[in-house]
Amino acid sequence: MEALQLGSLLLKISWILLFVSGILAFAVMYFRLRKPDQSHKKIIDSLLNAAVLAIFVWKFSIVLFEPSMLVSNPSGLLYFNGGQQGIWLAALVALLYVLYRARKMKTKYSNYAYAIFVLLFISFSIYQVLLAVYTEQKIVVHLLYSAVSLALFVWLDTISRRVSSTDKYGERLKTFTAVAVLVGLIGFGMYDWTLSPSAEDNPGSRTVGLAEKDTAPNFTLTTLDGKSVSLSELRGKKVLLNFWATWCPPCRAEMPDMQKFYTKHKDTGIEIIAVNLTQTETSETAVASFIEKYGLSFIVPLDKKGEVASRFQAYTVPTSYLIDESGAIMKKRIGPMSYGQMKQLIGE
What we know:
Elements: E1 3-6, E2 9-12, H1 13-33, H2 40-60, H3 62-65, H4 69-72, H5 83-104, H6 109-135, H7 139-160, H8 167-195, E3 220-223, E4 228-230, E5 238-244, H9 249-265, E6 270-276, H10 284-294, E7 301-302, H11 307-311, E8 319-323, E9 329-334, H12 339-345
Parallel strand pairs: 5-6
Antiparallel strand pairs: 1-2, 3-4, 3-7, 5-8, 8-9
Helix pairs in contact: 1-6, 2-5, 6-7, 7-8
């Protein structure tokens, strides 16, 4: 399971693991910074405020990147976020806030730098362990990165506590920090490479499955007007395969943007198949009314028995797959997407 759906609330497992990692890293940071004069509490409070501010900026930064959504689809504010652009903006705002607080409280910047250093290394190390335990995949890789991160933390932490005495240790810290950054960059590149599925250029050599680069399982369903739709018939086009239901608030928030995306991209070799989980609906009439209300012009087949949704492991809705021209799965996305996020999904 990649997400938990509690009513209209969708919680990705990766978010939960990141949250747990962050909480544990904060606890470690608290004890590493703790001093008799309680001065460390100022740093802790500043970083907690920065974290809350970062989440707020990330969540609502979509207004900056897609301002038209406020008019065309205001309900999307409840379910969308700023995506990768929002993450970078949130990190920048949080950093500026920390610098402001350090200057205002006349606290050494090095104390904040050390606190952030502890947070990053410890949270990454814990996150890798949680991934290994939860996913039960690439266990050796996850544990290796956790061990390397923890070792670097202990190494640099030991050195940093001797820096204030002599310039010699200051020079050594600069050297070790540069090495750590270099190792980190190389490590993250290797991490991304090792976790990426291997690509096969020959479609005939691929297996049928749901992993990236697998051939998407074929299916045949009918629409409300009785037309038959097969996934295999759309070879030669990129397909955005979406699973949704009328009772799902995130789906309702997503549909206006999906229609906008389809209108602007249907002539570029992209097709949308929005599979309705009909077995969960009150009636097919409700589906027809929804399609008419939102003016949906893309293909909406009915999954009356829930077999296709089960085959694609669409346990939470909305769930989407991007399938390339040869029928291979390129990406999977759980949760609603804005127009901008759909463009990012196809690489625009």
